[in-house]
Amino acid sequence: MVLCKICKFENYDGTRFCQKCGAELPSRRSINLKGIAGMGMKGVSAAPLAARTVEGQSEKLKSKSKFHVKTVSLNDGSWYCPDCGQYNKSSAYFCSGCGRDK
């Protein structure tokens, strides 16, 4: 479980945004480049890691659509995000994948 620092809500592991307040949750991934970058290790490239960083930054810069598509709840109250397709539980006010509000 990942605890939100702002509202103290317990989110499931793998959740990128708090499902109660929508705040971005801290990432547990840490990449140590000390042993790779600049050391001249044969056959090792840091390029895929740089591509992942650029890709992550571009996701944050994506413009939001002018049209806000409403979510449609399933029979049990859970819902799929119309922006990213992430499945969310009925108790979620925000998408766990992109942070979009319900």
Structure in a nutshell:
This protein is low in regular secondary structure and 102 residues long. It has one helix and four strands; from the N terminus they run ββαββ.
Topology of helices and strands:
Elements: E1 2-3, E2 10-11, H1 47-61, E3 79-80, E4 87-88
Antiparallel strand pairs: 1-2, 3-4
**Which sheet architecture does the biggest sheet show?**
2 strands, antiparallel
Please give the order of strands in the largest beta sheet: 1-2
* Approximate helicity band: 10-25%
DSSP strand tally:
4
Please state the average pLDDT score.
76
Please indicate the percent range of residues in DSSP E strands (runs of 2 or more). 5-15%
Terminal Cα span: 21 Å
Cα Rg: 17 Å
Q: Low-confidence parts lasting 5 or more residues at pLDDT below 50?
A: none
* SS content category: little secondary structure
Order of helices and strands: EEHEE
Count helical runs: 1
Shape: globular
Structural notes for this entry:
The radius of gyration is 17 Å and the shape is globular. With 102 residues, it is mostly loops. The protein has one helix and four strands. The chain starts with a strand and ends in a 14-residue tail after the last strand. The mean pLDDT is 76. The strands form two sheets. It has a two-stranded antiparallel sheet. Strands 3-4 form a two-stranded antiparallel sheet. A hairpin with a 6-residue loop joins β1 and β2.
